[in-house]
Fold this sequence. Notes:
The chain is of the alpha/beta class. Helices cover about 40% and strands about 25% of the residues. It is built from 11 helices and 7 strands.
Amino acid sequence: MVSTAQTPDLAAIKARQRQTWASGDYARVGAVLVLISERLCEAADLRAGRRVLDVATGSGNTAIAAARRFCDVTGVDYVPSLLARARERAEAERLPITFEEGDAEALPYTDASFDVVLSTLGTMFAPNQTQTARELLRVCRPGGTIGLASWTPEGLLGEVFRAMGKHAPPPPTGLASPFRWGTEAGLRELFGDEITALTATKRTLAFRFPSVEFYVGYMRDHYGPTLKAFEAQDAAGRERLAADFAAVTARFNTSGDDTLVMHGEYLEAVATRR
């Protein structure tokens, strides 16, 4: 029997993603995620002088964290405006980081170019997950380290994306969930026998905002996926989306007062390249 399943148009999906991440101001969102990058660099046991690549660097959090540890750092991303912000931040700290435009699914580097390959909340959103994993492995030297931080499917961001998904068309058939990267089983599937070891640890990051309403507005204005979700709605739809977003946020709030304190779960994973 011939399968009728459609292959998703990954090129079109990637083009839309690039527009999404270029919208809003992801650097404002990334500013509250710095601790994840610092922790990942410690988990990867970075040593001074190591050649480090930060894939999907965004506004440079992990590249900057690695450079603070005196590594030889390159950050790559496919959104020029985010690279511009990353360069501004590195210049402000006088950190010698190379930032280059490039695609996680086709990294512009030769085989085994880096001792350590990192990605924080980035590669998980690449549409072709198998190819992305292949590229991380390819540019990492044998015996080198791959370190990843990815949101877990059952955590705060998993719930946020499900809330937004209620107000959006279903994802293309055949497209795997980005939250696959936030599970140990998913990473083992992606890397297969090309790694000799994998340590996966669930961690949480505390989000601290003035209020639930402030957080909803902050994400609506600055986080590309949320901004686009709101833009796609009519007035009534925006109200429903805001209400669902606020409900998720309130459910995770542990502040006990008028402010917002939430703990977002993510998977910190460190693998050794065969």
